[in-house]
Amino acid sequence: MDIINFASQNSVMSQYLAEMRDVTIQNDPMRFRRNLERMGQIMAYEISKTLHYKEVDIQTPLANCKSPVLDDKVVLATIFRAGVPFHQGFLSYFDNAENAFVSAYRKFKEKENLEVLIEYLASPCLDDKTLVLADPMLATGASMELSYRALLTKGTPARIHVASVIASQKAVDYIAEHFPADKTTIWVGAIDPEINAHSYIVPGLGDAGDLAYGTKD
Fold first, then answer.
1. 145 to each of 69, 115, 117, 152, 171, how far by Cα in Å?
2. Which of 4, 33, 138, 172 is the most exposed place for a label (fewest CB within 10 A)?
């Protein structure tokens, strides 16, 4: 399984990620959402380099020419709610992609006992398609795995790209263990070393959903 950690090399993504982590900038939800979107755009571009293309004939105003165009059928799948602006970044590049949405949330049954629940799924058929499964924060990997299992009820993708802004090392190891290694690639803005007792990434950036859309009861 390939693991692409963008933090291993400095780029403009480092700037966006620094702003998203910074508590002095986090009080601007519009900027937070925009940075999520921009990180999705960068990842979409990098993922596009791994896809399949075919040559087609194009008629310009002056002549006929051959041009490579995307040959993969791409499905962009996102976990609500912080994933929405992240998803938009991918969609602005893969504008002809089909889309899937999963509602997965963490519920604490007792202190330090975590349960992940899925209540909503909307997806096209996934058979033989390229699935990009995006969630900004990958803490334990449990939500991502359950979302993936739910999506498999809609078919079996040919390739899987798991995309996240920040992941814990534990979550990366979990995904590597529970997703098919021969057809999965993990793309992450940064890998942080640990999670705390409530399964939040440390240092992380806090609750991405709250930072993007406000706190919830």
1. 31, 13, 12, 11, 10
2. 4
Contacts of 129 (CB under 8 A, 6+ apart): 72, 73, 74, 75, 98, 155, 157, 158
- Amino acid 111: pLDDT: 44
Give dist(CA 93, CA 209) in Å, integer: 23
Average of per-residue pLDDT across 87-106: 92
Distance CA(206)–CA(80), nearest Å, equals 16
Residue 174 sits at φ, ψ, to 5 deg, of: -65, -45
Phi-psi region of 199 (alpha: psi -120 to 50; beta: other; left: phi over 0): left
Give pLDDT, residue 120: 86
- Identify the pLDDT of residue 108: 55
The residue ranking higher by pLDDT, 82 or 186, is: 186
CA distances from 176 to 39, 68, 198 (A): 22, 32, 22
pLDDT averaged over the chain? 93
